[in-house]
Design brief:
The protein is mostly helical. About 60% of the residues lie in helices and about 0% in strands. It has one domain. The chain has helices at about 20-30, 35-55, 60-75.
């Protein structure tokens, strides 16, 4: 049995087969609605970056990292 050491805080519904706009919408929808938009963008970006850092699938890593960069650029 393999031990899973990564446990995401919340299920986002993110799938690599979805279009970029849908993936990003789902990431943003999974953030805390009580926060300001800037902090929600950071939170969504961190969730995508966490996925990109732990996955072994190169396509998933590429798309998750692109989504994370999208949110981080919106913060600037």
């Amino acid at each position: 049995m393999t031990e899973k050491w990564f446990s995401p805080g919340k299920h986002t519904g993110w799938k690599k087969s979805l279009p970029a706009s849908t993936r990003r919408h789902r990431l943003l929808a999974s953030t805390d609605k009580r926060m300001k938009m800037r902090k929600r963008y950071v939170q969504a970006g961190r969730r995508a970056l966490a996925l990109a850092n732990v996955t072994q699938d190169t396509e998933t890593e590429k798309r998750a990292r692109a989504d994370a960069n999208y949110f981080f650029k919106k913060v600037k």
